[in-house]
Q: What sequence folds into this?
């Protein structure tokens, strides 16, 4: 996890306050404790906090192209960066590092804004294109990496990985968006593009935003969406699912730092650990959180998986009255967030950080495969409705 921030003047080349940029960057120090850097030129400031995972010796950011015309700050990981680097070398590009950051720079140089369609991974980045006098912002397909931005009344645009970086600027208005509050009570969080502040927005997943000098801030442009059309089932889908899951885990094991996994004992995290164990010569580091209330404690399942795959298992217990963490979580999330798993998630991250730098987690299994009871109930309700005449169903 890294963090990026920036200040961009859409109306000209007014001087950027370097001290303000540094304060914004340091608000995200926890995202990148290893290194930090700033780039300032007329009308533009970029900041970065780095958590080193690949190419520890180089890869510092902000990173400029060899000719200095492109400057990048980036948070994420491009899993197919090695294949893209080979393709770019064949086009004549020369690399000074062995990291994915430089691949983004030259992918943009070669393919322009369409470069995002070639990236396989999770990313949020801001890339300054000096010859075109434009700043290109992008966020990955599923929005794994966050990116916020706030167009101010004076033509300045603030952006960063967290809302707290934007609120470090005194000029950013703090008025609460009542529609965001309504969304929060409806969904349990504030969906993009809104944030809890009227003045700030989330760049939606699978979107880019190009800011140009002398032009107003445009609407984001979508480059990907999840296809929902039914597909014919062919072949052995069970084997294909396992093969795809194994390959998805494999590409995420590329790192020069210790790796591990969160293990709740559920199907998704257990599947990830099983794949990791089959791909690693060393025991997998796994981390679990236990609960004092037996009705909510699933560590018996996590222990079974840890024993089956002979992982190096770490376990801690969360107290039922662990309310001291609430103030911390309010600072972490920056806006209302009603996920009851936030406390154990924070605690398991604390536990994992004692042993590893990067941890894989299993999220989305229940959503993808209908694992929650509410999906079964919904299906049963739909079947019941389907037996009723339309004249009764419509009211």
A:
């Amino acid at each position: 996890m890294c963090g990026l921030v920036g200040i961009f003047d859409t109306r000209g080349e007014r001087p950027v306050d370097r001290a303000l940029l540094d304060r914004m960057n340091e608000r995200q120090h926890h995202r990148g404790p290893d290194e930090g850097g700033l780039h300032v030129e007329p009308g533009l400031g970029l900041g970065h906090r780095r958590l080193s995972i690949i190419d520890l010796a180089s890869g510092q950011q902000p990173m400029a192209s060899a000719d200095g015309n492109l400057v990048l700050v980036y948070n994420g990981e491009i899993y197919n960066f090695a294949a893209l680097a080979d393709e770019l070398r064949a086009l004549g590009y020369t690399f000074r590092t062995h990291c994915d950051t430089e691949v983004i720079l030259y992918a943009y140089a070669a393919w322009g804004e369409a470069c995002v369609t070639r990236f396989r991974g999770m990313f949020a980045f801001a890339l300054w294109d000096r010859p075109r006098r434009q700043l290109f912002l992008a966020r990955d397909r599923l929005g794994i990496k966050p990116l916020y931005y706030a167009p101010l009344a004076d033509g300045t645009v603030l952006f960063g990985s967290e809302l707290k970086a934007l609120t470090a600027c005194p000029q950013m208005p703090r008025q609460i968006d009542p529609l965001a509050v309504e969304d929060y009570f409806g969904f349990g969080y504030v969906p993009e593009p809104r944030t809890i502040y009227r003045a700030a927005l989330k760049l939606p997943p699978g979107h880019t935003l190009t800011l140009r000098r002398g032009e107003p801030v445009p609407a984001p442009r979508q480059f990907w969406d999840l296809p929902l059309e039914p597909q014919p089932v062919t072949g052995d889908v069970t084997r294909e699912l396992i093969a795809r899951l194994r390959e998805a885990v494999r590409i995420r094991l590329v790192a020069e730092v210790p790796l591990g996994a969160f293990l709740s004992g559920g199907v998704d995290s257990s599947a990830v650990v099983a794949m990791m164990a089959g791909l690693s010569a060393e025991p997998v580091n796994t981390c679990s959180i236990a609960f004092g209330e037996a009705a909510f404690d699933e560590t018996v399942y996590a222990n079974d998986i840890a024993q089956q795959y002979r992982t190096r298992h770490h376990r801690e217990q969360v107290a039922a009255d662990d309310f001291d963490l609430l103030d911390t979580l309010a600072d972490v999330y920056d806006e209302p967030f009603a996920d009851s798993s936030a406390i154990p998630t924070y605690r398991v991250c604390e536990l994992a950080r004692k042993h590893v730098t990067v941890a894989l987690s299993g999220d989305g299994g229940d959503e993808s495969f209908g694992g929650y009871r509410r999906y079964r109930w919904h299906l049963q309700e739909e079947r019941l409705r389907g037996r009723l005449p339309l004249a009764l169903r419509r009211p």
